[in-house]
Design a protein that fits this description.
The structure is a homodimer of 425-residue chains. Chain A contains seven helices and 25 strands. Chain A is of the alpha+beta class and 425 residues long. In chain A, strand 13 and strand 14 form a beta hairpin. The radius of gyration of chain A is 23 Å and the shape is globular. The first copy, chain A, starts with a helix and ends in a 6-residue tail after the last strand. At the A-B interface, helix 2, strand 1, strand 5, strand 6 and strand 10 of A face helix 2, strand 1, strand 5, strand 6 and strand 10 of B.
Chain lengths: 425, 425
């Protein structure tokens, strides 16, 4: 399907069908494009920021701000991974420039010209379709806050040279290292179900496979039930175009699922009738349930972590110091976060900040007065399915199948904050 | 109060009082600071983005994206004003680099070192207080979505050489020109009421005045009732530090009020017993109601505007083309947005996108199939106070005292979109 001739044929076929069906979307694929207002404003000649850092056209942060993504240890050559600095996070938005990245087997995101980019939908459909970016942007849109989290976040997967993972839980020094493969954005785009309905999924279409335009042709399968539920074909991130390292010009957002399913630089969706395993499809586990192939490990479990204070920070003096953190669940909406400041003996409700949204990060705050003694602080979240974040002991007893364990920090008498996870037996 | 000696004395006094009162915040002003995790990560040597635009440490947008703030026409010399490009807006977040700016009588935002910045609270209070940025960040925080809108947004005020304004309504070519002095962010900081309660407002403290550390010492009054309500002393904007041109390192956010009250680079709040008029205090009107001075024109009225399609854009062909826009009210929460595509004869409900938050922009969408004929499209919003956006005729009949009028766009047979406001008689 990658050859130019074949694509052109499908394109012509899809346009013909599209234009003749008389649906609400008729005319969508017609020749011509929206004259962008960019044409006007780009005529202004942008100038570099002056010594105060002020760029009238597109602003930059203060040069006193130094919070940055960190590379994933041990992955400098292997992949272009980087971690969100949650120790500096505020509210629920991850600034797009600090969104985590985890890219496989190629060094840099592709430099895609959006005017040349197409999204093809084919396979077991009534009408193969091909969309330009302008055509996608005409369609019914949604804007939704969702987190994206790597399957290896909080576990050691991917951080060891052996790639075996699982052993580094108590080796993380900062919340950036332990939880930096999590970010939260407002994504804008078309519901994947809108596109699939337009194409018409045939009865035997039970899975889709999504392909990236990146150099590695990253490809992932997805059950049709999820594809028709709440997945987004997103061209917007936090009010502007999706960033290059996050899938420009358009990506899949699979709310609540493991990060690897959120295929970037989306160029092709094929509807198929069975599960296909790809190079990086290790994110889930297949099981045979009643003769049907079911994908488990697909949904991120309920989690939370204290970001302020967290590993590597210092509480400078006894007294009031607000505890803040993030909570999220791939299964739904956060209903409760509790905080313990006495090593887990007692728990008190934290305050949840509006908005509290499904499959999105929720900010919590908790008033705390430090008495100067060594203590352990930790948070545990409960989602609207009634699932509560498990302890690390429960996690290890469960063979690490769910990594949503409680993450404790120790505050020493000197005020320094350290990872307090027990060393696994 | 500006002399160094005086400040030092107040500082010493405030610390003495602060430390001895034994309140929940005791110890707050103690010497020492939180060792920032920045210290660790800034040791990494950031490298410039490569040819794909990928910066692992702090990402930038694709070089194919050219949406920028535009200067406010006629204000190049006068002020460093710039307008948000709402024609490209998505969801409810204004990217911080595209937040509008409107700065008086000085060219650039000050380059403030946050380690040297202090916020002084004094005047009619029991305990004058002075805070470092680190001390502010220890305190109870909130993160809230709020719009900031210049009092002159949608009107001609400030766009004419005479600064008289009011005559340019139908001269705006784009939604950036007509509505670009509006932006929406998630702001993180301390409630001003928290700080004022800590200082203890005396009985005769009925107003506050807030002063900026900018070169023009921008100063604004605010009634104590509003100050004790929902105002934020904000150090965070969209998940990171407030941007330089938006008040770094800390600013006042006065939800729902005219933009000029949101004092940037906040360094001083003085509690006083009467209204003081400052250079730019024209944003409201004082009235004597029952012997009490009341400030009217303080709250931004309910408004909405269609951003997609909008002036300067082109609908490339007949067929489905989603109408999208923003709605907001300084008085509360948007409850309803209606769209008319027949010149105002009939109105239908638009879809409001979650989250719908008080004194914040709400995104609405409306399915539309263009038949290729010349038509007029427009939106009207209603807030939870039951106030409905007025027509331009009502606005002009009211002598322009409320500028929340309905803003129509004309779509020509060629598909070009133009300002359709009637020329005032």
């Amino acid at each position: 399907m990658d050859s130019k001739d074949k694509e052109t044929k499908v394109k012509q076929a899809s346009r013909r069908r599209f234009l003749t069906q008389g649906a609400a979307l008729a005319g969508l694929a017609a020749v011509g494009g929206m004259r962008s207002v960019h044409a006007q404003v780009s005529e202004a000649s942008p100038r570099p920021p002056d010594e105060t850092g002020f760029d009238v056209y597109y602003g930059v942060r203060s040069h006193f701000e130094t919070s940055v993504r960190e590379r994933i240890p041990g992955q400098e050559v292997f992949m272009q991974g980087s971690l969100t600095p949650h120790q500096d996070s505020m509210g629920i938005i991850t600034p797009s420039g600090l969104h985590y990245t985890n890219v496989r087997f190629h060094q840099n995101p592709p430099a895609i010209d959006p005017r040349q980019h197409h999204l093809l939908i084919h396979g077991l459909v009534d009408r193969p379709l091909i969309f330009t970016m302008e055509e996608l942007k005409r369609l019914p849109s949604v804007s939704r806050f969702h987190f994206i989290e790597c399957t290896s976040n909080t576990s050691g997967i991917g951080t060891s040279a052996a790639q075996g993972g699982g052993g580094f839980h108590n080796g993380f020094r900062t919340v950036q290292e332990s939880h930096g493969k999590l970010s939260n954005s407002q994504w804008t785009g078309v519901l994947l179900s809108t596109l699939l309905r337009e194409a018409g999924v045939k009865k035997d279409g039970t899975w889709i496979i999504s392909e990236s335009a990146d150099a590695g042709h990253h490809t992932q399968p997805l059950p049709i039930e999820k594809a028709m539920d709440d997945c987004l074909v997103a061209y917007g991130q936090n009010g502007e175009a999706v960033r290059p390292e996050n899938g420009y010009p358009v990506r899949l957002v699979v709310p609540g699922s493991i990060g690897i399913n959120n295929v970037k630089h989306l160029r092709r969706i094929k509807v198929v009738d069975e599960f296909y395993k790809f190079r990086w499809s290790y994110g889930g586990r297949l099981a045979n349930v009643g003769g049907k192939t079911v994908w488990t490990g697909f949904v991120k479990p309920v989690k939370s972590v204290i970001t302020h204070p967290s590993g590597g920070m210092r509480v400078p003096s006894p007294g009031f110091f607000e505890i803040r953190g993030l909570a999220w669940s791939g299964a739904g909406t956060i209903r409760r976060v509790e905080v313990s400041t006495d090593g887990g003996q007692t728990w008190k409700d934290a305050q949840l900040e509006d908005p509290v949204l499904p499959k999105a990060c929720t900010r919590f705050t908790f008033p705390w007065t430090w008495n100067g003694q060594e203590i352990m602080i930790q948070s545990r979240a409960t989602d609207d399915k009634g699932v509560i974040q498990q302890t690390f002991a429960e996690y290890t007893a469960n063979s690490g199948s769910q990594n949503g364990f409680i993450y404790p920090w120790k505050v020493t008498r000197e005020g320094s904050v350290e990872n307090a996870l027990p060393v696994p037996a």
